[in-house]
Amino acid sequence: MPFISNTDKERKEMLTAIGVGKFEDLLANIPKKFLLKEDCCLDEPYSELEITRKISELAANNISTDHANSFLGGGIYDHFIPAAVDHIILRPEFHSAYTPYQAEVSQGTLQYIYEYQTMICELTGMEISNAGMYDGASAAAEAILMATRKTKNFKAIIAGTLNPNYLEVIKSYTEGVGIELVVVPARNGLVDLDALKKAVDDNTGCVLLQTPNFFGNIEDAFSIEEITHSSKKALLIVAVDPISLAVMNSPAEYKADIVMGEGQALGNAQNFGGPLFGFLASNITLGRSMPGRIVGATLDADGKKAYCLTLQAREQHIRRAKATSNICSNEALCNLAATVYMSLMGKEGLKEVAVQSTTKAHYLADEINKLDGFSLAFGVAFFKEFAVKTPVPAEEIIFKLKEKNIFPGIDLKPFGYDNMLLVAVTEKKRKCDLDELVNALQEFSR
Amino acid sequence: MAKTIFEKHSEGRKGYTLPTNDVEISMNKCIPEKFQRKEEIKLPDVSELDVMRHFLELSHMNHCIEKGFYPLGSCTMKYNPKINETLVRNDGFNNLHPLQDEDTVQGALEILFELQKDLAEISGFAGVTLQPVAGAHGEFTGLKIMKAYHDHKGNSHKKKIILPDSAHGTNPASVTLVGYEMVEIKSNEKGLVDIEDLKAHVNDETAGFMLTNPNTLGLFESQVETISEIIHSVDGLMYMDGANFNAIMGLVKPGENGFDIMHFNLHKTFATPHGGGGPGAGPIGVREDLIKFLPVPMIGKKDDKYFLDYTHEKTSFGKVHSFFGNFAVNVRAYIYLKMLGPKGLRRVAENAVINANYIQKKLENYYDIPFKDSFCMHEFVASGNWQKEKYGIKTIDIAKRILDKGFHAPTIYFPLIVHEAMMIEPTETESKETLDEFINAMIEIAKECEENPELLHNAPMTTPVRRVDDTLAVRQLNVKFEW
Lengths: 446, 483
Hints:
heterodimer, A: alpha/beta, Aspartate Aminotransferase, domain 1, seven-stranded mixed sheet, B: alpha/beta, Aspartate Aminotransferase, domain 2
């Protein structure tokens, strides 16, 4: 039998030691009629060779972004991942270790989480980071729960330029627990500041802003901070692309209270959208309201430096129904990949990734803008992603370019924007890749 | 202790290479000065070799399955085949963007479709969503489905979820997260749901019942049919926490025995390594009439083509993940099920149960085992009561001494209803020799309690660090390195 060590002989010895004649005797507590009379209807077992063939066949029915010219983003980005990242996360000591509850045999995991927390704090300018959430969307939802719990103001204002997938998940998390969501509309690809001013009042618990926003545009976080903090208690939550932080304001520069985002871009593959990981950091005063695990430095019995999970009184295994979150398993190994990635890239490497992504995106935007019938949708500052108005429905462009293995971007029609394409660029693109897209779009020019 | 990566910083050192930028545009033209970062980010400058040595050094301070046994109750720390790791790293999976055109991801969709089908088959449910990415995320999703069901029926008076006092902490936390109130009922002297206490707490406000089966004492809840009748009589729904599904797969289908909703833990039962805390996946199975409330998209199939199915978008309660859940974890579960086949599936559960009963039997004279009168399923709970009463040795001391013997500790102080609890789950992948070694170590420790209690008070002594002071960690909070 695959993956089972004991032989039939050993199994028999064990049953004898237990004091039963056959396995079924151990099931005395299960009502007889529950026990299945027939095997489950599954495929007959594949050997390792057979499953390898089967998986190769299935994978061959996909077209990977490495075999296409992809400009897809919308929260998931195809950044370069150095080979060393995978070598480290495949170490069994990280890969098959349990959650680090037994600190004495989990120092490796605990220390890298501590280093991860430090790096997230460095990027965001915050003072405390947790050990990670499921993805950017759930981190956004948990940040709202955290802010409303802390302020006891249950009105949450959300910029209409937020990634719509995040908004959907936020709705799932906030519906039914007495949180009122107010979505402030977008105007020309940015949150409408006048509408935001009207929406913020002394009952506001938080304002959630994304910058660069879903369209890739850079929001005026400084003005939004002023509006947010003009109310008595409201906290400013900012969703950021971690790569952008190498070149754009640290959220501390505009006095954000909570910073979160999707971490996949830091050393994790796209993997068809999962696993991802969310990061969440804040000012220290909010630390005790934070969801998820946190690692702290401490000492062992000999007075040597050591690490352990800390502020555990917030968590479900201690506080049960009163916990700050129900989260238990998170995406630890993805956080490790991010830690290794940030270590390898260092400050210069991360900056280089951000600069190349930005400048290449701007080159591409300029070139597309020159095509008849195409124009930049908003004409405002953006980071590595931008929206383009197209002369024909975006769907048509996506459909036709598929034949050339070009994925030109995301159709924004489902989000209420007809004839609009969202185009993302990373450092992986060469000038010739960008030109290839421009040439291909020419066909639709009018 | 190892130095931090930050202490290995050497200005200007590099651990990466990138192509030269072949586009010439100045950053000032791209990002207005106001929005440019003022203070440089601080990340360490280290070489690739520095990085490899650093993380290898850290890795040596971890326990892991390949190093030794993990008798962690309710965590199902089985060995996971390496073929998963090789196959999931296929370029055709790793480098897929979730918003690619469906025609370019047919292989990925086929895997998800097949996995939905296989999980439904082995659990006896009509529909499965793969969107939740962890067990607790699955609980949240399941309870949202429950809520959607009651909203749909106009059951606005339904506010309470009942669960037994042996439940995992995530259960009550999930109840709060969806805005329900928790009602905790007692377990009886056999470690099972106390039916009288249940009856006393069930009323018109009951929205549903959450039950782990087998429960956290490792006992099959034999009265599940009665419980289900009681809950259904007030139009409540039965939720099964599938954390312990490893014990019964191929033997029993929960969907055919009174449960309406269930989550699976793919990282426990279906061969995704635990990863030091994730990623996992927590798919949900439901009965036929609840499918319409599941998160969208589901994966559908029509005329040999797979597609993202938004058919029931209007009745769905919403989304719980940015995209379709943890695809790479789902691929591993798919491979594992294909390799097990119908007989292998059953064999997993059988050996998990035999291994647990074997340890329970061998330790019964050395430790207090409160429910030893019945056979356990995949795990059992022992108690350090005897050691505490006779020698003043606590379960935490025993657990730390187990680390000295080269094993991970069991789950301790849980379930809450057993004093000084040690919850032991060996899983099916462990051999008899390993179990015997563990049993001998446990017997040795029982003797040490009597003969040399200092060994226990001082444990662990052979681990990378000695006993860690977690109260100090809270008192002098230090959650990031200053450099």
